[in-house]
Fold NADP-dependent oxidoreductase domain-containing protein.
Amino acid sequence: MSNFPMSKQILKIGDVVVPAPGFGAMSLVDAYKTNRDDPMLVLKKAYDLGCRFWDTADVYSNTGYGESERFIGEFLKKYNIPREDIFLCTKFGFKKNGSNQVIDGSPEYCKMAFDRSLKNLGVDYVDLYYLHRVDPNVPIEDSVSAMAEIRNSGKAKFLGISECTAKQLRRANSITKIDAVQREYSLFDRSAEETGLKDACDELGVAFVAYSPLGRGFLTGTFKKRDDINDSRKDHPRFSEGNFDKNLELVRVVEELSKAKGVKPSQFALAWILHQNAIPIPGTSHVARVVENFESRNIHFTDDELKQIRKRIDNVTLVGQRKFRMSNVDA
């Protein structure tokens, strides 16, 4: 992994220093149905920049399973990329049932889904394998025990859980070493701090990976009025009628602070996450945004700046609940 570029913040998964921010590959399948660049060009730009911490999942797919995974596999083959050049993360736990999704964290499904992901990616191992959601009908101990068998086989180097509670993390970590937790986290959503999950990660030596680090695009300043949103984000409680305008105060604060720092709002928001000892994985379907996002790694905040940022953000009251993520309860 010595060919990974270093950022000002040294962030690790286990004993491996990873390049941050990473790349959220859900965007390869156009999660918000927006116009996009060729996925191969997006991945090529990320690779050339050194943005090589890539996060995908079997369920990131417009049809069936594995569309995002296959894009990555095709890219690796097309450009003859050495496998060790990419820190590759994928997930299991969502099972498609017609037009619906159910959670399946059973050991049997874990092993089947893992083999399918390896085939989709065209690789013989992944660096980090996540349980995408905790199954309320399967003890988390059973889920991670199956994952541990995969790690012991050498086909996954590290294990993680997405959207767990601090209690669930402790239970899982008592069975096998959990190396990473993935959770929504940004200036727009700091509930991982409020619930104690982030503190638990710090205590247990578990890396914290932040998805939706730009508040689902809100922190970029792109949306000036609710009508600017023309996709499923309109269903998010914080983007609802009545809440959107109130929450714009946060955007105004971020724009003011980022202007004073001489950077873009999106870069400011990502740099703040990096300074919280967390790995943001912004997704984008545009080559230019890949460049913009990765440049955030060069931004440094002093301790005093970080205190002032938190003070300003704490003075903003956000309205609307965090969007329901299917299973985020103790099981």
Notes: The chain has one domain: 12-216+274-305. The domain at 12-216+274-305 is CATH 3.20.20.100 (TIM Barrel).
